[in-house]
Structure formats: structure tokens, C-alpha cells
Amino acid sequence: MIAITREISDDFAKCELTHIERVPIDVDVARAQHEEYVRVLAELGCRVIRISSGEHLPDSVFIEDTAVVVDEVAIICRPGAESRRAEVDAVAGTLWLHRKLEEIQAPATIDGGDVLVAGRTLFIGRSSRTNDEAIAQCARVCEPLGYQIRPVEVRECLHLKSAVTALDNRRLLVNPDWIDTTVLTPFEVIDVHPDEPAAANVVRLDAALVAAAAFPKTASRLEHRGYLVRTVDVSEIAKAEGAVTCCSLIFSTSQETGFAL
Ligand code: CIR
Q: Please, what are the domains in the chain?
């Protein structure tokens, strides 16, 4: 697996916020947490490619929002927040080594955090960041490749993947209060612990799941179902409304174009 990550900007505290209140962020603490996150990805078998934060891009560490990568293609997003649009250039400049690129065009907007790839299904959140035009453009790229596109309404949280992520190709981890779970059929669903509404966001790697340390009850639920869970403290990063999936773009190496070293 390859994981592309992006360093934390000096301007991190000027991040976009939608559902949470602004509180002071210690950028050094956030950077230390990010460093440990990157270390865990590497320890679990990822080849990590780190790119710099870029100038005046407070949210650029949340690289997941800039692209959607499947085996055959990478779709370069047009993020919903204007302040984040310039993030995509550096990401495209790295991804072209690994995938053929397609680009979402205006007036479409989409954040990668709204796209959940589960086997050959792409669930796409219809959210404050992602509109129907973007869902249609994704369908034009992905349906001919054999993917099924399923739109999901997102109202109570920032992105679809705040409410649901994949544990494997059959099972999803879900907060049922934040999305309509009937659209997830026939996937098997495991609910987050009710005390931990934000716990549905986990990174799926071949070796283990990576989850935020703030959600031990959900982690133990997953361990009882046989999953190996590695936890990382992302509490400072969470103050910028980010979670674990947002901080990386993870994809398989098998489809590389041959240009990558
Ligand atoms: C934003 O509002 O865009 C950032 N402060 C947080 C983005 C988190 N990304 C994600 O969940 N995929």
C-alpha cells in the first residue's frame, strides 16, 4: 500500500470549521501527533510519501479531501471550501506517477471525505461540500470501470466518512444517527458505541485498522469482532475537525504506471 500524507501548515489554526467551535490549537502538538500517525502507517506496511504543506493552505494536511483513488484512476477533487481549492495541485503532481488522472470540473464540488470506496461500490455523500454535479462526474468516470455509485445524504456531520467507513469489503462501521443506513444494504453494518458518535472514521490497512485513541469502546467492539486495531492520539488534529482517514490517501501499489521509483 502507498500512503500519501501532507505536513501540517504553519497556518493550521486558521482551518475551516463547520460543526465544531474554534478552540486554540497547538500546532507543535498537532505535528507530533501527525508524526506518530505517519510512523504507524509505515509500521503497518505503507510506503509513505510525504509532501509539504504548501503556502497558506491551513487544511492541506487533510489530503484525503483532494482526491479519490481507485485501482484504475485517481479523481482530482474540486473541494467544497474555496480556501481548499489550491490544495489539489501538489497532490495531482504526486498522484500522476501512480494513476491516470481525471479532474472534477466546476460547478461541481466534492471533498474526498465524502467518498467511501467499498469493493466495487462508491458511496458518495451529498453534503455541504459535495454536490450532485460532482456525483454525476464521478459516475461518468467510474461506472464504465464497473463501479456502482450510491449517493448518501449527509446532514449531521461534515463528511460521509465522519459517519461511515469500511472495515473490509463486506462490513462497514457506522454511526446510524448521522446517515440513513438503509442505503448501505447489502453491506453488514457494525455500529459505533453510542457514547462515541465520531468513532466511525477508521483507516483500513491490510495489517490492521487505525482508529483514534479517543474511542476505546468502539475499538474494543471491533476487537471482539476479530479486527486488529491500532490507536493513535489525534486529539489536537480533531480540533481542526479532522479525523484519521483525512490525513492520508491510501491506495494499492498494484496499478502503478511504472513511472514511480
Ligand atoms: C475542513 O473543514 O475542510 C477541515 N478543517 C477538516 C477536513 C476533514 N476532512 C475529512 O474529514 N475528510
A: 2-251 (3.75.10.10)
